[in-house]
Design a protein that fits this description.
heterodimer; A: 312 residues; mainly alpha; MetI-like fold; 13 helices; 0% strand; flat; B: 318 residues; 2 domains; 69% helix
Chain lengths: 312, 318
């Protein structure tokens, strides 16, 4: 177990440096004039230029200088200092305001995935090849195949604008009700995957030897399913949902952008639109770390729940 | 984009079946007796599957639209007049006009080319990278496998959309063709890992087969064994994964164009049209719905096609 965590941790550290190096190299290094790039299209005075040169160690040149500045960037990132966006706000402050909204949205999406996905998956797994099973398979294929950039605006149009069942956009202080439709849209992909995972897992476990033993002991079906099968079947589902929580927090760029939800993804969406380089890099750096850490946590959780993983 | 990863969950079963371009041996020891080859069985199943035919028809239709768009519409997608803003259907414009007064249907038809081009070339590039990496890792094993597998793990750990945003933002002022190839490059560089894992596992299965030992005893070199004996066996599962990947690459390209960092005007792409349609949905919804339907159907067609082929080759999944 210790060896597994160690190996996994090393892998994450490598991935962390790999991705941050890519982010850094592409965004800051090798450009014609980094100071001008930082300022966008606004003019830079000589005093500002001198200040920025000293602040970001731009006087050091060559490969050594590059890594010097890269380590500066990583240090700042780890200390939570993300710098300022082009509008002059601290990126740390922006994120602090945005996180609670994003987390709420992610939790709604996850709840949708658990309540509908897992339940339907268990039923489909038990009644394999029934009408219910086949129709859920087709439905999940549809959901998996339709990109979010189609699903989100179409849902917004029909449910929000045309039939007015939900508020079409969320606004500055979104209520739970306003977040419901975006949450369903965001969670639909996880829902479909969770459903398929649960279905396969339940169906496989139903054929296992211990189920046959339980049946021959004369246990009622309800007990076999709820105690014996579910416990084993939900291991992969739980870990998948853990990964999804990490994904949902970082993957809500489209949904938050379309529904106007002032979360992290929305700020990234706006940063891309307004060509706000520092804001994009700051948010992407943080999201990469969130993604890597959540993957690590889930892998370790998986190893704790299922001992077979550790000895691969 | 997470649908791309779900493909990986079933990779091993598909690989273990060793579907082959070579004649499958029906009387292999331990295998159940069969009158037909596995490929023949799969084809018989596919022929009876309506999903296969529907998705194949859609793929062929999309390919035809990409090749000769003028066959499907007589209107010029770049012929836009503001006086026709959000006007209803007239003439050849069966879905009316959008915010800029362009023919909605013609734009959707002409948008097919960019999407399919990006999807197909990205899938091709992915296939080449995955084939090289998967083949080397699976065939040589040992430290080569260890190093390449770690590389796969690390690339798999990079979130696709975020990395693409950073990579493409750098090119925000480049010309059309540069952008097109940048999008393809980004998708290929970040998207080859699943296919590489599939190929690696099928290579590992294939290299244990008797005919590989026989070839080796006859004095065949590594290169020949890999090319003539292992590659045909690793190809079928790889093609399934790449078909599904093609669908998700089209979706990814549309998403990037939607965000404004993928393809840009004057290149016509569904992602951009969905974005502009979305902004003006209150005035008129058809400019949103039409490209959305084109995109969704195309992506679905490729994913369903891959799914149907895999189901046919892997009876265990049913």
């Amino acid at each position: 177990m210790f060896r597994f965590i160690l190996r996994r941790l090393l892998q994450m550290v490598l991935a962390f440096f790999g991705t941050t190096l890519i982010v850094y190299a592409l965004m800051f290094a090798g450009q014609g004039d980094p100071i001008q790039a930082l300022a966008g299209e606004r003019p830079v005075t000589a005093a500002q230029r001198a200040y920025l040169t000293q602040k970001y160690h731009l006087d050091q040149t060559g490969v050594g200088g590059f890594f010097y500045r890269y380590l500066d960037y990583v240090k700042n990132l780890l200390q939570g200092d993300l710098g300022q966006s082009l509008t002059g706000r601290q990126i740390g402050d922006i994120l602090q305001q945005a996180w609670p909204v994003t987390v709420r949205l992610a939790l709604i999406a996850l709840a949708v995935a658990i309540v509908f996905g897992v339940t339907a998956g268990v039923i489909a797994g038990i009644r394999r090849a029934s009408i219910f099973d086949n129709s859920t398979l087709v439905l999940t294929l549809l959901v998996l195949g339709i990109p979010t950039i189609v699903l989100a605006p179409i849902a917004q149009y029909f449910l929000g604008v045309k039939w007015q069942l939900f508020p079409p956009t969320a606004g500055a202080q979104p209520s739970l009700y306003a977040l419901l439709l975006p949450g369903i849209v965001l969670g639909s992909l996880s829902l479909a995957t969770a459903l398929r995972l649960t279905r396969t897992s339940v169906a496989e476990n139903l054929r296992a030897d211990y189920v046959r033993t339980a049946r021959s002991k004369g246990l009622v079906k309800r007990r076999i399913v709820s105690v014996h099968v579910l416990r084993n079947s939900l291991i992969p589902v739980v870990t998948f949902l853990g990964v999804e929580l990490g994904n949902l927090m970082s993957g809500a760029i489209i949904t938050e952008g379309v529904f106007n939800i002032p979360g992290v993804g929305f700020n990234l969406f706006r940063g891309i639109r307004t060509e706000d380089g520092p804001l994009v890099v700051g948010i992407v750096s943080v999201l990469v770390v969130v993604y890597l850490v959540s993957n690590l946590v889930v892998d370790v959780l998986y190893a704790v729940l299922d001992p077979r993983i550790r000895y691969e | 984009m997470s649908d791309f990863e779900t493909v990986a969950a079933t990779e091993d079963q598909a690989a273990r079946r060793g579907v082959s371009g070579e004649p499958a041996t029906p009387d292999r020891i331990g295998a159940p007796q069969r009158a037909r080859s596995l490929a023949g069985d799969a084809w018989r199943d596919l022929r009876r599957n309506p999903i296969f035919w529907v998705s194949l028809a859609l793929v062929v239709l999309a390919a035809a639209m990409a090749a000769v768009p003028s066959l499907f519409t007589a209107n010029d997608p770049r012929d836009c007049l503001l006086s026709r803003q959000h006007a209803g259907p007239s003439g050849g414009a069966i879905f009316g006009y959008d915010f800029q007064g362009c023919d909605v249907y013609a734009r959707a038809v002409y948008g097919t080319r960019a999407s399919l081009l990006v999807g197909a070339l990205a899938a091709l590039a992915t296939g080449v990278i995955a084939l090289v990496v998967g083949m080397l890792a699976g065939y040589f094993g040992g430290w080569v496998d260890a190093v390449l597998s770690r590389v796969i793990d690390i690339v798999l750990g990079i979130p696709l959309l975020l990395a693409a945003i950073v990579l493409l933002k750098r090119l925000s002022t480049s010309s059309d063709n540069v952008r097109l190839f940048a999008v393809i490059f980004v998708l290929a560089v970040l998207g080859w890992t699943t296919a590489a894992r599939v190929i690696r596992s099928s290579v590992i299965t294939a290299k244990e087969q008797d005919y590989v030992s026989a070839a080796r005893m006859l004095g065949a070199r590594n290169g020949r064994i890999m090319w003539r004996h292992i590659l045909p066996n690793a190809l079928a599962p790889a093609i399934v994964v790449l078909t599904i990947a093609l669908g998700s690459f089209i979706a990814a390209e549309a998403t990037l164009s939607f965000l404004g960092i993928g393809l840009k005007a004057p290149t016509i792409s569904w992602g951009q049209d969905i974005d502009t349609g979305r902004i003006h949905m209150r005035e008129s919804a058809t400019p949103l719905i039409v490209p959305s339907a084109f995109l969704a159907l195309t992506v679905l067609a490729f994913i369903m096609l891959g799914d149907a082929i895999r189901d046919a080759f892997d009876p265990k999944l049913r």
